[in-house]
Amino acid sequence: MSKENNQILKNTNAKILDEFNASIMFDKELYSQDIKGSIAHSKMLAFQGIISFDEQQQIEEGLLKVKLEIENGEFKFSLKYEDIHMAVENRLTEIIGEAGKKLHTARSRNDQVCTDFSLYVQEKTKSIQNQIKDLISTFLDISSKHTTTLMPGMTHLQHAQPINFGYHMMAYANMFKRDFERFSSSYERNNYSPLGSAALAGTPHNIDRFKTAEFLGFTAPTQNAMDSVSNRDFALELLFNISTTMMHISRISEELILWSSYEFQFVRMSDEYATTSSIMPQKKNPDVPELLRGKTGRVYGNLISLLTVMKGLPLAYNKDTQEDKEGVFDSVKTIEISISILNEVIKTMIVNVDKMEKACKIGHLTATDLADYLVQKQNMPFRTAYYLTKDVVSKANSLNKDISELNIDEIRSSNDELKNINEEIVSYLNLKNSMNSRNSFGGTSTYQTQIQIENIKNWLQTI
After folding, report:
1. Given CA atoms 238, 244, 250, 256 in this order, what sign does their dihedral have?
2. Strand partners of residue 161
3. Residue 352 and residue 406 in one domain
4. Catalytic one among 2, 156, 278, 440?
5. Which of 111, 174, 177, 426 is the most core-located residue (most Cβ within 10 A)?
6. For 35-38, which contacts have Cβ atoms below 8 Å and span 24 or more sequence positions?
7. What number of helices (H) and strands (E) belong to the chain?
C-alpha cells in the first residue's frame, strides 16, 4: 500500500473512531444542565477561596453567553470536543481566557456528567408529573359527567356486571395517581448531588459539596464518591416509571380501540385523532391510540437496554455508561407527547350513552343479583341459588330476553322453587338498581363513584 493510501486509511479510521467515541451529538441535550452545574461549581470555588470572585463572575457571565449562543443556534457543535462538557468549557475559555481554564478545578467529567444527567432526570420527573396531573383532571371531568351512565363491566372481555362509565374512568384515574406517586418517590430518593465526587475518590481541594447541592436544588450531596460516579439508578427508575405509565396508556388505548369499533360503538373519537383508510372511505381508523399502544414497546426496550448496559459493570466509572442517555432522551420525548395526545383524545371523544346501555342488556349482567337476593332474602345456600339463577337465565334465553327484562311471572315459571318468589326481585334485576346496589367502599354505585371523584380531587389539591 502506498504511503498516500495508508494515510487516507489512517484518516478514515481516525474519523470513524472519533464518531464512535464522541457523545456530543446526543449529549448536547444536556447543555442547560451542564451550564447550570458549572455555574454552581464556580460559585462554590469562589466561596471556598479556590478562585477569586472576579474570576467566578467572568465564568458565570461567559457560561450564560455560551447558553445564549446554543439557544440562538449560533454554537457550532463538533466531534473535536467529544462531549457537551468539553464543548462548553472550550467555548468559555475562548470567550473569557485564562479564567475559563480554572472552572474544572476539583471536579471530573465523571461527576460532571452524573450531575448533568441527574438534573435532567429530576427536571423531567417534575414535568412528566405535571402532565400526569392534567391527565388525571381530565379523567375526573369525564367521570363526573357519567356517574349514572350504564355500561357493561367485563372480566375476560366478557360481559359481567353493570357499572357506570364514570367508575370505569376512575379506574384509570387511580392508575395514573399511582404513576404520579411513583415519580414522586423517585424524585425524593434521587435528589442528591454527585458534584464534587471527582473521578471516583473525591478531591484534595477544600470544596463544599453541601453548598453546590444547595445551589442546584438537591437535598444534599451523595454519601460515597465511588458510588456516585457509577450510579445510574436514577435513570433506570425514570425509565421504569415511564414504562409503567406507558403500560397504563397502552391499556386505555386498547379499550379506546375496542370501544370505537363497529362491534362496540361506545365512543367516537374526534376526526383529529382518527384517519380514514386510503382505499376504504367508510372506515375510520383509531391510528392515534394504536400508535400510543405501539410506542409502549419502544420505552420497554430503552429500559431493558440500560439494565443490560449496567448489568456487569465494575466500579467506578466505565465508558459503557455513555450509552445511558439516548434511551432516556427518547423515552422522555415519547412519554411527553403520549400523555399530551391521550389527554386530548379523552377530552374530545364522544360517549355513546345509548349504545353502552343497550350493551348492558346482553349477557344477563344482573344474574349475580338474583343469586345474591336468594341468598340474602330467601336464606338459600349459595350453590342452590346459583343453579336456580341458571334456570332463570335459560328462561330468558328461550324468550330472547335479557334477565333484566323478565317480569315476575316469567321468573316464577323458570323453576318450581321460585313459584312463590317475592315480586320485589324484579327491581333487583333492574340494571341501574344493580349498579347502585354495589355500594361498598370502592364500588361502582353512583354514590361511591362520586366519593372516589372527590377523594382524587382532594388529593390533587395537596400536590
Report:
1. negative
2. 153
3. no
4. 156
5. 111
6. 35/63, 35/64, 35/66, 35/67, 35/88, 36/119, 36/216, 37/112, 37/115, 37/116, 37/119, 37/195, 37/216, 38/63, 38/88, 38/89, 38/103, 38/112
7. 20, 8
CATH number at residue 392: 1.10.40.30
The CATH number that applies at residue 190 is 1.20.200.10
Residue 155 sits in the same domain as residue 258: yes
- Number of C-alpha atoms within 13 angstroms, CB side, residue 324? 28
- From first to last of its 463 residues, the chain has per-residue pLDDT tens of 555 655 554 555 667 776 777 888 889 999 999 999 999 999 999 999 999 999 999 999 999 999 999 999 999 888 888 899 999 999 999 999 999 999 999 999 999 999 999 999 999 999 999 999 999 999 999 999 999 999 999 999 999 999 999 999 999 999 999 999 999 999 999 999 999 999 999 999 999 999 999 999 999 999 999 999 999 999 999 999 999 999 999 999 999 999 999 999 999 988 887 766 666 666 678 899 999 999 999 999 999 999 999 999 999 999 999 999 999 999 999 999 999 999 999 999 999 999 999 999 999 999 999 999 999 988 999 999 999 999 999 999 999 999 999 999 999 999 999 998 999 999 999 999 999 999 999 999 999 999 999 999 999 999 9
Domain ranges, residue 176? 110-356
- 414 has catalytic annotation: no
156 and 301 together in one domain:
yes
- Out of 277, 340, 398, 427, the active site residue is 277
Q: Which of these, 88, 94, 30, lies nearest to 63 by C-alpha position? A: 88
- In this structure, are 387 and 417 located in the same domain? yes
Do residue 184 and residue 314 come from a single domain? yes
Q: Does 377 fall in a domain?
A: yes
Cell numbers linked to 158:
366478557
Find, among 66, 108, 75, 128, the residue nearest to 328 by Cα.
Answer: 128
Judge whether 277 counts as a catalytic residue: yes
Q: Flag whether 1 is in a domain.
A: no
Question: Do both 306 and 416 map to the same domain?
Answer: no
- Reference 159, options 351, 352, 360; nearest CA is 360
Whether 187 and 82 map to the same domain: the answer is no
Non-local (6+) Cβ contacts of 71 within 8 A are none
Of 310, 332, 356, the residue at which a domain comes to its end is 356
Angle at 20 between CA 228 and CA 74, to 5 degrees: 85
CB 349 within 8 A of CB 265: no
Eight-class DSSP state of 232: -
Instruction: Verify that 78 and 128 share a domain, yes or no.
Output: no
In a domain, 416, yes or no: yes
Cα-flanking dihedrals φ and ψ of residue 151, to 5°?
-150, 155
Q: Pick the last residue of a domain from 62, 87, 105.
A: 105
Give the CATH number, domain containing residue 90.
1.10.275.10
Total structural domains in the chain? 3
